[in-house]
Write a structure and sequence with these properties.
The structure is a single chain. 71% of the residues lie in helices and 0% in strands. It is an all-alpha fold. Helix 1 crosses helix 4, helix 4 runs parallel beside helix 7 and helix 5 packs across helix 8. The radius of gyration is 20 Å and the shape is globular. It starts with 9 loop residues before the first helix and ends with a helix.
């Protein structure tokens, strides 16, 4: 049932449109939704959605940008919990949590496939400069130069972490089965995260070339 229309401030209307779009995309995927469907779910007119976002692709980008900021906040929260330095399990735990969010991964993938048709792609796991900024800020707060790692090493840390996390997420079922393990047993995921975290900690700490 469409939501009942009511008076909203511009900020409230925009936020509720984004909420409705996020929920619909989570259930049906980006290709299964559209501006009119979002308008009905949010209880606003199609024209109002167009006024705020213009096109459906722009609306999806806005949803993804908000989701990206939420993911970056996971990183910030982990840095605060770990004393601002996500050296060991913290960084990989966050990355695995992001990759476990099927809704987010589907949304990101769709945005990449359509980016060339409708302007620049939003921040995403393949455009990591802002994520690196957040990590670098945390590292610098406790390990200022020259003691701490430089920007290049931090970038390589993120690339290594993302590659390791993505690769495992994509191949874990096949690889673990092929190795004679039950891929549904959580201890395999725990062991992999521990191994990857140790390698990343060694690298960012400067003990690896």
């Amino acid at each position: 049932m469409p939501a009942a229309r009511r008076r909203r401030t511009p900020d409230e209307a925009r936020a509720e449109i984004l909420d409705a779009a996020t929920e619909l995309i989570a259930r049906h995927g980006p290709d299964g939704v559209g501006l009119r469907r979002v308008a009905e779910a949010a209880g606003v007119t199609h024209g109002l959605v167009t006024h705020y976002f213009g096109t459906y692709r722009a609306l999806v980008r806005a949803v993804l940008e908000r989701e990206n900021e939420r993911k970056r906040e996971l990183v910030r929260a982990r840095m605060r919990a770990d004393g601002s330095v996500p050296y060991a399990t913290g960084m990989t735990e966050v990355l695995f949590e992001i990759l476990a969010d099927e809704r987010y991964v589907r949304l990101w993938t769709w945005s990449q496939l359509h980016a060339l048709d409708d302007g620049p792609a939003p921040d995403s796991p393949t455009n990591l400069s802002r994520l690196v900024d957040v990590i670098e800020e945390g590292v610098r707060s406790v390990l200022p130069p020259p003691e701490g790692p430089d920007r290049s090493r931090i970038e390589q840390l993120v690339l290594l972490a993302m590659s390791g996390a993505y690769g495992y997420a994509l191949g874990r079922h096949y690889w673990l089965t092929d190795l004679g393990h039950d891929p549904d047993r959580p201890e395999h995921d725990t062991a992999y995260r521990t191994a990857l975290s140790s390698a990343l900690a060694a690298y960012i700490g400067g003990s690896a070339p």
